[in-house]
Amino acid sequence: MLPLTPVLVAVVCILIVWIFKPADRSLRRKKREPGAPPWVDEDLNDSTDLHQGQEDADERPESEEDVEHIPFSHTRYPEKEMAKRSQEFYELLNKRRSVRFISNEQVPMEVINNVIKAAGTAPSGAHTEPWTFVLVKDPDVKHKIREIIEKEEEINYMKRMGHRWVTDLKKLRTNWVKEYLDTAPVLILIFKQVHGFTPSGRKKVHYYNEISVSIACGILLAALQVTQTIVLKELALASFLNLQ
Ligand SMILES: Cc1cc2nc3c(=O)[nH]c(=O)nc-3n(C[C@H](O)[C@H](O)[C@H](O)COP(=O)(O)O)c2cc1C
């Protein structure tokens, strides 16, 4: 057996530290924010206002009796019909494209209202429905919105996104110029409500607000596709196809 010289002891100590360091690091990564509930995964942490101190202390929480009962209605299709409907739905959604050239043709308000109502059927954290849809038709307001977005997008491309992101986007030939924000007859602005208000004006927690709003956006896109609401410029469609 080797005698335990000071040098050997030092080497053994360094080895032990080296072996346990990665494990320690991974433990540290998983450490939760103080006060955060254990079920909030870091990836899902979207600035939802979860601080107990800000919750409404004296407000009576909504009880089961306060919640309006909405009956569940369901149509059961034969297997063949289900397969046909799912195939048709897939084919329709598969035609959706993120277009950057939009016609100025008017869209009936009834259709716009219906697609927004469809988006509002989305599930949401604790049924908080943390979204606001704002319709903009006024050309001056649309233009002001375009200016704000283009200014921010230019900073994104030049500074915030970084080289890798900007390089990855090159194949899509996107940039910060968004002419279609002036051209489209209607803009739908979608806001997430990071918190709401109780009847007495206190802050109300909106759980998973960003995820809930994202699901609503997905349904909105599907509804726009099903109704074929987004009309492309003919010429633009051709140049977009060129881009593929
Ligand atoms: C979260 C998210 C962010 C996006 N950001 C932009 C964007 O800043 N500019 C843009 O032109 N397209 C943007 N897109 C559209 C994507 O580029 C597009 O979905 C992708 O290229 C696939 O094309 P498709 O939507 O036609 O299937 C974004 C899409 C998502 C889901």
In words, what does this structure look like?
The chain has helices spanning 6-30, 79-93, 109-119, 139-160, 162-169, 180-183, 209-226, 234-243, and strands at 131-136, 187-192, 195-197, 203-205. The protein is mainly alpha-helical and 244 residues long. The longest helix is centred in the N-terminal third of the chain and has 25 residues, at 6-30. Among the domains are: 107-136 and 186-244, 3-Layer(aba) Sandwich (NADH Oxidase), CATH 3.40.109; 138-184, no CATH class. Helix 3 runs antiparallel to helix 7. Mean pLDDT is 82; it is low at 23-30 and 235-244. The strands form 2 sheets. It has a two-stranded antiparallel sheet with strand order 1-2. The chain is extended, with a radius of gyration of 26 Å. The structure holds flavin mononucleotide. It catalyses: 3-iodo-L-tyrosine + iodide + NADP(+) = 3,5-diiodo-L-tyrosine + NADPH + H(+); L-tyrosine + chloride + NADP(+) = 3-chloro-L-tyrosine + NADPH; bromide + L-tyrosine + NADP(+) = 3-bromo-L-tyrosine + NADPH; iodide + L-tyrosine + NADP(+) = 3-iodo-L-tyrosine + NADPH.
Which helices and strands appear, and what pairs or packs with what?
Layout: H1 6-30, H2 79-93, H3 109-119, E1 131-136, H4 139-160, H5 162-169, H6 180-183, E2 187-192, E3 195-197, E4 203-205, H7 209-226, H8 234-243
Antiparallel strand pairs: 1-2, 3-4
Helix pairs in contact: 3-7
| CATH class wording of the domain at 107-136 and 186-244 | Alpha Beta
Biggest beta sheet summary: 2 strands, antiparallel
CATH superfamily of the domain at 107-136 and 186-244: NADH Oxidase
Note the total helix count: 8
Topology as a string of helices (H) and strands (E): HHHEHHHEEEHH
User: N-to-C terminal Cα separation, in Å?
Assistant: 71 Å
Order of strands, widest sheet: 1-2
Overall 3D form: extended
Rg value = 26 Å
Alpha-beta classification:
mainly alpha
Helical content class: 40-55%
Beta strands, count:
4
Which regions have little confidence, pLDDT < 50, spanning 5+ residues? Answer: 23-30, 235-244
Beta content:
5-15%
| CATH architecture assignment name of the domain at 107-136 and 186-244 | 3-Layer(aba) Sandwich
Q: Ligands bound here?
A: flavin mononucleotide
- CATH fold descriptor of the domain at 107-136 and 186-244: NADH Oxidase
The pLDDT mean sits at 82
